[in-house]
Amino acid sequence: MMLHRLARAALIAVALSLTAAPAFADDIGDAIEEARRAYRANDLAAAKAALDVASQLIAQRSATGLSRFLPAAPAGWTAGEAETDASAAAMFGGGLIAKRRYSIGSREATVQVLANSPLIAQVAPLFSNAQLLGAMGRVFRVKGKTAVLARDGNIQVLLGRTLVTIEGSANEQEKRALLDALDLVAIEGFNG
Q1: Backbone φ, ψ for residue 16 (5° rounding)
Q2: Distance between CA 56 and CA 68 in Å, rounded?
Q3: Contact assessment for residue 128 and residue 134, using Cβ atoms and an 8 Å cutoff
Q4: Regarding predicted confidence, which is higher, 12 or 121?
């Protein structure tokens, strides 16, 4: 009976230790755990470096999530692979970028989604002031959102903390077809 209780206690201890461990390891969790170990060892430089790596890995995963909003090629168009980057956004002050290049005949357009960038805070006042926005180009509405066709032919739509830009040699109608293919509500709700 005593042996049975000891065996049962050992099985419970093993089961508890397994449930305390992560169900699966990933690069982000590994980097965070590395930072935790370094912090406990009072190696603050190593802890910071590991957290920086974890932060970059999280940004990369978020940027990949952002790419799901890029539409498939509309009828008659071809689309390249979606590109994502968390580090290239540094030229915009940080944030996440997902973009895809589309072509129809000899014309092309690139749909770019920029999220969580300080640049967005700078352009937000333009989108909240119709006169300022009108100075940039022609204002129009799409799916209940305000957009602008800038003088350079680019289309921009601000959706909360996300800026969508469509640029390239495609004409306005073709760019608007790409804009119509976007789920603006889902993009606005992105929280990556």
Answers
A1: -65, -40
A2: 19
A3: no
A4: 121
Name the pTM for this structure.
Answer: 0.70
Taken as a whole, the chain contains a residue count of 192
Residues 166 and 110 sit within 8 Å (Cβ to Cβ):
yes
What is the DSSP secondary structure assignment for residue 172, as one 8-state letter? H
Q: How far apart are CA 61 and CA 82, in angstroms?
A: 14
Expressed in angstroms, the distance from the first to the final Cα of the chain is 55
pLDDT mean across residues, the chain: 80
C-alpha span between 159 and 53 (Å, rounded): 29
**Cβ contact 164:182 at 8 Å:** yes
Q: Would the pLDDT of 88 be above 60?
A: no
From CA 55, how far away is CA 146, in angstroms rounded? 33
Instruction: Yes or no: say if 27 and 57 are a contact pair by the CB < 8 Å rule.
Output: yes
- 38 C-beta neighbours (distance < 10 Å), count: 18
